[in-house]
Amino acid sequence: DADVTQTPRNRITKTGKRIMLECSQTKGHDRMYWYRQDPGLGLRLIYYSFDVKDINKGEISDGYSVSRQAQAKFSLSLESAIPNQTALYFCATSDSGQGAEYSGANVLTFGAGSRLTVL
Amino acid sequence: AQKVTQAQTEISVVEKEDVTLDCVYETRDTTYYLFWYKQPPSGELVFLIRRNSFDEQNEISGRYSWNFQKSTSSFNFTITASQVVDSAVYFCALSGGSGNTGKLIFGQGTTLQVKP
Fold first, then answer.
1. CB burial class (10 A; 0-12, 13-18, 19+) of residue A119?
2. Which residues of B touch A43 (CB under 8 A)?
3. pLDDT tens digits in sequence order for chain A, 119 residues long
4. Do B106 and A40 count as a contact with CB atoms less than 8 A apart?
């Protein structure tokens, strides 16, 4: 099984519908992230969470919300989907080790992606 | 503000050619991390390398090598003797500050096509 699992992998929906993308991980990492990929724009951070009680907005949080149900689960919701939210969405995790020499610092493990199309 | 620029949108080479993917970054942080990720046609993102801002040593891993130059704010990636399996989108990314935040700023990506 994958370390970071995203469901659904593909979803087509209509404008105005509520959509939830789910992410679960077996890495044991404290930190989880949602990124969005658009052609020509790279990946942009939507929300991130450093532990169950910690939720933070990223660069492009408008129109999205998240829930950290457990250390291993982090879901992304679109309350009322719109066509410009059509994109490839990635969940990622990282651990919380500190120190400049820590080799894992800021290294993200990504899920396989969830392709969302809003018509 | 932090920024990562990958000026090459698409590169096409013939198998066995060497190819260099350019990455230029902007940051005011004195401590930061630079990354390269690979996204093959299957879509997943694969971590390739992380480099600390205070470590300017170049790195070689098999056919892959990375050249980090703080003087030009560049972190270029070279594939030697390219293979068809190297065909992918490659992303350069930056994480600012000395902390471990996981908040990466990605470049636009460079699509590499290696033809047989």
1. exposed
2. 45, 91, 93, 104, 106
3. 679 999 999 999 999 999 999 999 999 999 999 999 998 889 999 999 998 999 999 989 999 999 999 999 999 999 999 999 999 999 999 987 666 566 666 789 999 999 999 99
4. no
